[in-house]
Amino acid sequence: MWKTWGTVLLLLAFLVIQGEASECVPRSFGPDRIVCVCNATYCDVTPVNNPRVPRQGTFYRYVSSRSGLRLNMTSGEFGACPVDTSLPTVTLNVNTNERCQTILGYGTAFTDSAGINLNKLSPATQDQLIRSYYDPEVGSRYTLGRIPIGGTDFSTRPYTYDDYPNDTTLEHFALAQEDYLYKIPNAKRAVELNPEVRFISAPWSAPAWMKTVDSINGYFAGSLKRQNYQIFANYILRFIEEYKDNGIDIWAVSTGNEPLDALIPSNRIPAMTWTPKTVSDWIANNLGPTLRASNHNGTKILALDDQRFNLPWYVSEMFVDERARNYTSGIAVHWYGDRFAPPTVLTETHNDFPDKFILLTEACTGFERTDYPKVILGSWDRGEQYILSIIEYMNHWSVGWMDWNFALDNVGGPNWVNNFVDSPIIVNPDNDEFYKQPMYYALKHFSRFVDRGSVRVSITDTDDIRATAFVTPSGEVVVVLYNRTAQPTTVNLNDPEAGIICVKLPAYSINTIIYAQSSSTLK
What is 203-220 written as a DSSP string? Predict the structure, then answer.
């Protein structure tokens, strides 16, 4: 049976390479709530552009909408829009000579919960799901993955890699069964599909015995005892070494997931407090030198890994120590507190530390206490939250955007502290199928077309039509537009070097437009 399904998958891949799309099989869960259903023998895919770069004077366009379009492709020729007073009309100007950050990529996280849900499906359906994200031909072309160091709330139990009290030599350090069952196999499959994938890791907490409070979660879950600074640096290095021995290279590690969570009275998730001063000391005297002296001296260190309302003050205080600044390559940010700080804090941080890249490393919907149910199948509103956030982060110097769990069940778990959330893909093991939600397509509108090494360029936008633009290494201009209004809108996309493209944006629609960069501006 598995051989038959494998043959079907190969046939689907062949058809896509030849430029034929497999369209979404929709299922409605209510008004404006459409998912695309995938199973062992079928999943919607996006065709490879043929040719990859449109010929001069033509463009490709992909549209997803609240009404049910999902990356539907058309092509067209340059030309200004005719006057139509029945529709709002705006002109957006692209300037490919104004260059900003270079894009690292887009991705998701390999949590225990995601792996548990994946393993509930048949092997053929599992392959469909991983391909949906990481396959360069039929999937989203993800190039990033996040692997927790030990357990998180999206595990079925609390654990670290050395839960033996006072094991200061780390004699008992060992990866957990969850690594071998849920993380490593799926991470390896992602790399098999796309060798360009880079993995970023983060600890949620040190082992409880290393901390000032004998716990890995809860309110005031404590900080690292100073006498254990070097031991914890060794612990991180051991994780990197063990994963390398299992075929996974860790490209970067953060200093810890959401270090200020432990100060929140309602906190339940695993956490460990770092202040700017203590984490700076740890980087400068322990983690930085330990990695630098090891065989993994190319592993990058990311600071913060918490909400953007901590910017720029948190890293400004960290980087008072030049040694900590020199060991740190980037700043990791989460989106959960975005309403408390404008996106301009990202730009301010970039301006203060232009040598440090900014990367959004975690986002999901359904996380608010007032969000119920946690999973809303087919929610366009949640897809809209994703697309508006990605555009915002791109326009404020982020080099990428990463989702949280790559797959959850219909209640948003499992999660051992009942901190359920939503996911771009929800699995239904009873029918051996999974559902791609609007959030999945919002991310794919970027990851599928904005290759690593692309450079963001200037584009104007409006409150109603949000926009961002890039030039790819292969010479394409990629423009992503979101019409956040309830009515269609006509857009004149004006690139003075290439010409004008006329597009009619459906109500509540994501639009990716691709055209060849003018030969006069190729660099």
Answer: ES---GGGBSSS-SBSTT
